[in-house]
Amino acid sequence: MSGVLAGKTVMMTGAGRGMGRAMSIGLARAGAKVAMIDIDEDVLKEAAGLVDQAGGQGAGLPLRADVTDAKAAEDALARAIARFGRVDVLVNDAVVGPERIGPRYLIEPPRFWSFDDRLFKEMLTVNIFGPQLMARTLAPHMIRNGWGGSST
What we know:
- With 152 residues, this protein is of the alpha/beta class.
- It has a single domain, classed as Rossmann fold.
- Helices cover 46% and strands 12% of the residues.
- It is built from four helices and four strands; from the N terminus they run βαβαβαβα.
- The protein has a four-stranded parallel sheet with strand order 3-2-1-4, with helices on both faces.
- The radius of gyration is 16 Å and the shape is globular.
- The N and C termini lie far apart (34 Å).
- 35% of the residues are buried.
């Protein structure tokens, strides 16, 4: 496949639905291989099929993983390298969004004191710790390959 991103591999978290899914398809259309991470295996497999349609067979690699689990992040990187040889770009799109608060969160915003503690902790862990963990895991590999930051 040719394109502006031909020869590049992108790791996309939250790749199963929403913006992560749309960006994965767009990246594949631009020629990238996409290592697709999501915790929901069913939507991930469906999204990977769409990425393959957009970028050619094998453009998407579905990787079920929890972005808050260091071992899962390391395993996902190892599997992406085994399949594509490298990872050049990380896009952190996995989130626990406001829709989890309730179906009417935009119409009837909940009071902060009414949030379920477990949901709030999950939001903080996935939305803040997850991107840091994924970046920490991938940065050394990307920097060694001349991508993702400065080696100085």
